[in-house]
Amino acid sequence: MKALDHKIPPPLVGALCALLAWALAALAPAWRIDGEWRLPMAAASLAAGLALDVWALLLFRRQRTTPSPLAPGRSRTVVQSGPYSFTRNPMYLGVALLLAALCLWLGSPLSLLAIAAFVAYITRFQIQPEERALRAKFGVPYEDYCRRVRRWL
Fold it and tell me: pLDDT 10s per residue in the chain (153 long)?
């Protein structure tokens, strides 16, 4: 399945998973989570996801390295500060938090499967190929970074 490595832009994968969440919620409309906490948690997840994505993107720009997930070989450096000090993939984590916000807003436990689908797809077809490219380009310093910081959290 290497044919899918770095082929679909992660924001598009996130959008497709959002549609999946919406469809899953529609499959079981009677099966809902209600509670006063649901919408504030959705708002917090939305804010955290957006903040994480913007923060990570700004660090890439500041380091003058490519933020393009489709071309990890063009990276000029490995960003290790800010959110990159606690997750190697803050932009993908941000998208997962945005999906969590949608699932909370929908109130459908079934829609949570869309987050699992996003994490599985991005890990296999985006993160693992990125890691191979970055290991080949940056060698031991990147390996050290991988030992210090987790892939997701």
Answer: 677 788 899 999 999 999 999 999 999 887 888 889 999 999 999 999 999 999 999 999 999 988 888 788 888 999 999 999 999 999 999 999 999 999 999 999 999 999 999 999 999 999 999 999 999 999 999 999 999 999 999
Alpha carbon of 52 to those of 2, 46, 113, 117: distances in Å?
29, 10, 22, 20
pTM exceeds 0.90: yes
Cα–chain center distance at 40? 21
Of 15, 148, 125, 4, whose CA–CA distance to 78 is shortest?
148
Q: What are the sequence ranges of the domains in the chain?
A: 34-67+74-148
* Helix pair 10-27, 112-122: axis angle to 10 deg: 150
